[in-house]
Amino acid sequence: MNSQLDADSASTRYANELKQGASIAQSDIEGEAWGWRTPAGQLRAERRAEFLIEACGLKPSVSCLEIGCGTGEFTQRLLLSNCDLSAVEISPDLAAVCKKRNDKAEIIVGNIETGEGLEGRTFDAIVGVSVLHHVNMEAFFKNTMSKLKSGGRFAFSEPNMLNPQIWMERNIGWMRAWRHNTPHETAFKPGQFRRMFEDAGLVVDRLQPFDFLHPATPRFMIGAVKGLQSMLEALPTRSIAGSIFISGTNVKPK
Description:
Shape: globular
CATH class: Alpha Beta
Strand order of the largest sheet: 3-2-1-4-5-7-6
CATH topology: Rossmann fold
């Protein structure tokens, strides 16, 4: 599957995202299929939020745009940095849920491919978790990453196509349905992901495959799995970790 989603399929993809958003707002897909609510899932979410906050130096007076905020699972964690947070979401249903959970953030119904809802805005940082594999990257770079101020920072966490489970979810029909993936969702390989950002003129200062802690890990096993994870992430086995973290800036060093 092409990670650079075809711009010609945009209307179909947007319709699928709106349908998915309505379904998530009325159910517990996040807990059932994606595992953010389990004890291990909560640790995974905390680690991702810490990545974003540290990589972008989020703090008071720093303006940050969170893309694809969904129900606000990460919005609430980003707010702990006390940054000036705006969050954009294509689904009005999910944006409403996020707003209820996070009244200190500005919640925008918009589109990161077209820039809708973000007109005339700029930000010190742009961040997101598991969003970019839903979108046409060329359009995203043109219409949303262009809103990053000179010298601004970006950080994203995305699924790793080299991970066996992620590969199956994107390539085997029943796995895709079971995991509630939309028809167009893809994933990224680490080297490919870096090249996308660099080809867009951005400077990548960190690219890290990470995460072997599965959200279904029982609470009593989390400590042991985290110890194993530290070892696996320090070895070549990190290439098949579940996720990829990327961060950088839009200004090339002199």
